[in-house]
Amino acid sequence: MARSTVYNDIVTDELYEKVNENNKELLDDFIEYLQSTGKSELTITGYTSDIKIYFIWNLQNNRNKEFTSINKRDVIKYQNWLMNTLGLGSSRVRRLRASISSMSNYVENVLDDIFPKFRNIINKIPAPASQPVREKTVFEDEDLEELLNILVEKEMFQEACALSLAMESGARKAELTRFKVDFFKPEYIVHGSLYRTPEKIKTKGRGGKMLNKYILANNFQPYLDKWLEEREKLGIDNEYLFVTKTGDEWEVAKVSTLDSWAERFNKYIDKHFYWHANRHFFTTSLAKANIPAEVIKQIVGWESVEMVSTYNDTGIDDELGKYFGEDGIKQVEEKGLSDL
Hints:
By secondary structure, this protein is mainly alpha-helical. The chain is 51% helix and 7% strand. The chain is globular, with a radius of gyration of 23 Å. The chain folds into 2 domains: 3-124, Orthogonal Bundle (DNA polymerase, domain 1); 137-340, Intergrase catalytic core (hpI Integrase, Chain A). Helix 3 packs antiparallel against helix 4 (41-61), helix 4 crosses helix 6 and helix 8 (157-169) crosses helix 12.
């Protein structure tokens, strides 16, 4: 369940206006603190929306109590409400708990001169046991080719371009929104087949690690060309590749924009679509092409080579088929970036 879905259903301007003023001031201070410590805009937005959900619950079910007076009973009641009233899965509940735990740490460690007796008690209450909320989707080439064909037939060129970029780069959903039109010029192609972004893109991680991203150019280019042609027809001059229209203005697409596209994709194919599955698809494609794990690690941008096996969905039979045949052991040549 997406964060925005819960937020939009629960938090309204009218209700938030009634929230304890001290709590609202505390959240504002916490947001400024996060900004000062270099947290990404996406992280701050997530914390803000999640904490506001707690404040609305607190308003309606807990006498609008000040956050600095929170106790274990409050935590239990809130967690039960999330699970039993909203029907949220364990992972979502854990994220919502984590947001108020982070603000509790801020109060305890940064505002200790104002609230010397405050302690973070969120983790004193056991979180719900982790349960898988959906079966992992493993896409085959034909699955995504079918979806791309459907999108092109429906003249959904921007969505097709975003899907192809995810398939050919393994970029995360938030990273896709950070690609710019100017990243895709002939002079930025390396080894004859890979776009290398001229600017580093902020990626997931503490403080937001900055990395150059690589994109397999040959498969991506046709969908890029269709979208650039469509952008020209629409008169879009925004520097970012993916955009959304607000009023008369074209603005950079948000993560929520890509979430809405994913919901649409799920109407067209049988397998459940979510953007992160493309990261698995990209890694698996490189592994099937005999690209060494160390090279895959570098091209995707991981710090540990162990992540390659985590994201490689190649079955053991397929993997063995690379090295064994009717004549016994095959001589398999490993490949590098220039072979892509």
